[in-house]
Amino acid sequence: MIRIRRGLVLEIVARRPGICEVLVDVEGRQERAVCYEDLTGPVQPGDEVALNTTAVHKKLGTGGVHFVIANHSITATDAPEPGHIMKMRYAPCQVKVLAVEEEASPHAQVMRDCTSLSGTPVLIGGLHSMLGPAAAALHVLDPSLRVVYLMTDGGALPLAFSRLVHQLKEKGFVQATVTCGHAFGGDFEAINIYSGLLAAKVAAQADVIIAVMGPGVVGTGSTFGFTGLEQGQIVNAVHTLGGLPVAIPRISF
Q1: From CA 44, how far away is CA 101, in angstroms rounded?
Q2: Model confidence over 28-83: pLDDT tens digits?
Q3: Are 112 and 238 within 8 A, CB to CB?
């Protein structure tokens, strides 16, 4: 079950689009926490918040931080944004997005008409950290390329958690982002890997797509208990849609 504790926001440590990193007083200690302000509303010093402290309590590495579940110091607000597709469905923190496939989307018609990647190259990695070198290499090869990052739901679900994506967009190495499956927070939202790939091509106007999960990966030491196996499934999806799949190898010695 979720380990929930009350905390007091002491300081704003960092803030970038969609996410705020804060210092909180929780259980008599000063510790860092992450707040997705698009979900909970803004936070400021002095706010009392509810924290999911499970990962820190379990001493996890990846994902081992506190997360703000709710801000008790702000008044109730509605969700005025368009869209009715839910991600993290049927969970307490399910979030509403405007998906490119739905009728209200300005991209609905072009998404209905598009059924092929038409040879668009797709670089496919098994770890989020592969995104940086891939985007940098493309930029060196041809700075005029429009590179779109497609984030799957194999790792972190909120795109805002990635400092790397923020830096790559600031540097101009990545021009747009698409989040698919239950991942959310991209410039474009898609329901699955197939529509996510097509959205990267026709909605985000990609010359090249990089498809990699968000930060974090699960490995168990068993043959198939590893989230990086999705790399093979994405290769198959790109091939099915008529794209050019390019697998980024993970090699260690």
Answers
A1: 36
A2: 999 999 999 988 989 999 999 999 999 888 877 655 789 999 999 987 666 677 88
A3: no
Q: Report the amino acid identity of residue 57.
A: H
Coil, strand or helix at 94: coil
If we measure between CA atoms, which residue out of 83, 120, 134, 102 comes closest to residue 198? 120
Token pair of 150 as six digits = 């497609």
Q: How far is CA 55 from the centre of its chain?
A: 19
**Torsion angles phi and psi, residue 204, rounded to 5:** -90, -5
Which residues pair with residue 12 across a beta bridge? Answer: 22
Contact 108, 195 (CB under 8 A): no
* CATH number for the domain running over 96-247: 3.90.190
Residues 6+ apart with CB under 8 A from 85: 96, 97, 98, 99, 101, 102, 189, 191
- CATH number, domain 4-71: 2.40.50.220
pTM: 0.93
Using alpha carbons, list the distances in angstroms from residue 100 to 26, 89, 147: 40, 18, 19
Indicate if the pLDDT at residue 16 is higher than 70: yes
Q: Where are the domains of the chain?
A: 4-71, 96-247
Backbone dihedral region for residue 181 (phi beyond 0: left; psi -120 to 50: alpha; all else: beta):
left
Query: Residues 76, 57: contact at Cβ < 8 Å?
Result: no
Place of tokens 């797709």: 122
* Exposed / middle / buried, residue 219 (Cβ in 10 Å: 0-12, 13-18, 19+): exposed
